[in-house]
Amino acid sequence: MHEEKVADKNTPYWWEAAPVRPLPSQPLAKRLDVAIVGAGYAGLSAGLVLAREGRSVAAFDAMNPGEGASSRNGGITSGSIRPDYATITRRFGEAKAIAIEAEGKIAREFLYDFIETEGIDCDFQLVGRFMGALGYDQYEKMARGAEALAKRLGIESYAVPHAEQCNYIGTDFYRGGTVRMDIGGLHPAKLHAELLRVALASGLTVHSRTPVISIEKDVSGFRVATSAGTVQARQVLVCTNGYTDGGAPFLRRRLVPVRSRIIVTEELPPELMARLMPKLMMMGENRELGFYYRPSPNGRRILLGGRDSSRGNSDPTAPTLRLRNGLIEIFPELEKVRLSYSWFGNVAMNRDMLPRIFEKDDIVYATGFCGSGVVWAPWVGTRAAYKLMGRAQDAGTAFDFRPPASIPFYSGDPWFLPAIIKGYALQDKIAWWRARR
């Protein structure tokens, strides 16, 4: 008997409304002011700023523009930073921690203003985010954090006790949680398509399926060798992230591509959606391998994402089932619901888990978004463009500092990830046991 498929399609749900396509082939310019490596959110945002300032600029993407994380992510405008405030303070000092936290607010507002000002059609809705607490001790800690965030930055952020949880999410899985109202949801592939449209209209040239092979410094700038030929560029900006390849070897030794998989349910009855997600908020939880989830932009499906420890072209069944089991654990009513989509994409992690602008051998890098690129990639890409133009006042950001540390015995193949993910899973089991004692 033939085994039933776990999900109907293994391509991103987002591609139905905004397919990722190659661009028409264009001749290479002999000389450029700026060559950009990567045409995702960061590369296009930088290219847009530079083109509007009259620079001759081209972006080169090894795939179709947007085919990587820009059209595969969950579309949540979290702008999260993985290390908490205390950890950043311990590693980099309190001034850096305060600046990073404040910049998250600014970066989100920048994105929302860009969407409105440029007329970006990407189904953006500022609905807020609910974060579930696994136990009452975690709830108390999260509640204090929400109160502190509201006091420090004036963000509408508050605790939701267990007794009121059903007003936000139709599950008894959590023991309360927190809400912050400056986070929303959008259609990530539409965001990229619209950003591409605006950037091309502003004069940016984008070469799809044209990987950069090498970048060599010479007396007049850089020789950028691509699969379509060599370009002379006065400046170079590298904006690759989870799909960084051998064309940027310095960066490749510092970024670890980590798979994140998303599943999507079939369309659900309106009364079921109203019960499970009454406010249609974005959702998350505080586990090392926790899930993020949300309603689809039309409010008819549920999307849920999390880590995928598979490698290469391995069978997607096991990681898909793990996410499905997580979905059912949170929402037992969905036990018999069919999955319409399951796909993965790479996010990029570095050793201190912070986004970055840095300079090495006169090449500027904007990268390291650590799973929160919807907010950070456009922001960091734009700051990098101002840095290239020497506009220090506009380029100011707390993320412009030393390169991330390299990873010993690593040059692009994350052979160690399955073991790390197993370690995180063990930590989650221990935390779960403690929370439920």
From TrEMBL:
<feature type="domain" description="FAD dependent oxidoreductase">
    <location>
        <begin position="33"/>
        <end position="386"/>
    </location>
</feature>
<protein>
    <submittedName>
        <fullName>Oxidoreductase</fullName>
    </submittedName>
</protein>
<dbReference type="InterPro" id="IPR006076">
    <property type="entry name" value="FAD-dep_OxRdtase"/>
</dbReference>
<keyword id="KW-0560">Oxidoreductase</keyword>
<dbReference type="GO" id="GO:0016491">
    <property type="term" value="F:oxidoreductase activity"/>
</dbReference>
<dbReference type="InterPro" id="IPR036188">
    <property type="entry name" value="FAD/NAD-bd_sf"/>
</dbReference>
<dbReference type="GO" id="GO:0005737">
    <property type="term" value="C:cytoplasm"/>
</dbReference>
<dbReference type="Pfam" id="PF01266">
    <property type="entry name" value="DAO"/>
</dbReference>
